[in-house]
Design brief:
The protein has helices at residues 11-18, 23-39, 46-52, 58-65, 83-109, and strands at residues 42-43, 69-71, 79-81. A three-stranded antiparallel sheet has the order 1-3-2. α2 (23-39) packs across α4 (58-65). The protein is mainly alpha-helical. It contains five helices and three strands; from the N terminus they run ααβααββα.
Length: 110
C-alpha cells in the first residue's frame, strides 16, 4: 500500500504498550511497523525481519514477535502484522481510494 504516504502514530498507546522494551527492541519494533504499513505486513521469518529492522538478536525478537499476528496463515502469502495497524491501514486505504476515484471522476467530467 505504498500509496499511503503517512502512518498515524498513537503516541500514548505506543508508549504504554512498549514501556518494558529496551531501546534496541523499540527501534526494531517501530521499523517493522513502518515496513508493515508500507508493504501490507512483514515476512513471517525471523531472518527477514531481523534484516528489515537492522539486526535483531533472537531474544529481542521474542519480545517483538509477540506483538504481531499471522495474516493469511497457511498460505504462500503468510505474513505478520499488528492488528490495529492493519485495521487502520485498511480504513485509510479505502478513504484514499475514494478520494482518488472522486478526483478522477471530477477530472473526467471537465
Amino acid at each position: 500500500m505504498s500509496e499511503l504516504p503517512y502512518m498515524p502514530l498513537f503516541c500514548k498507546d505506543l508508549d504504554s504498550s512498549t514501556r518494558e522494551m529496551t531501546n534496541a527492541q523499540f527501534g526494531a519494533y517501530v521499523r517493522l511497523l513502518i515496513y508493515a504499513w508500507v508493504n501490507s505486513g512483514i515476512p513471517n521469518s525471523y531472518e527477514a525481519c531481523s534484516r528489515i529492522a537492522g539486526g535483531v538478536p533472537e531474544g529481542d525478537w521474542a519480545v517483538i514477535r509477540r506483538r504481531f499476528v499471522v495474516l493469511d496463515e497457511g498460505t504462500t502469502e503468510e505474513r505478520l502484522s499488528h492488528r490495529r495497524l492493519e485495521s487502520i491501514r485498511n480504513e485509510y486505504a479505502e478513504k484514499y481510494r475514494k478520494r482518488v476515484d472522486s478526483a478522477r471522476k471530477a477530472r473526467e467530467s471537465r
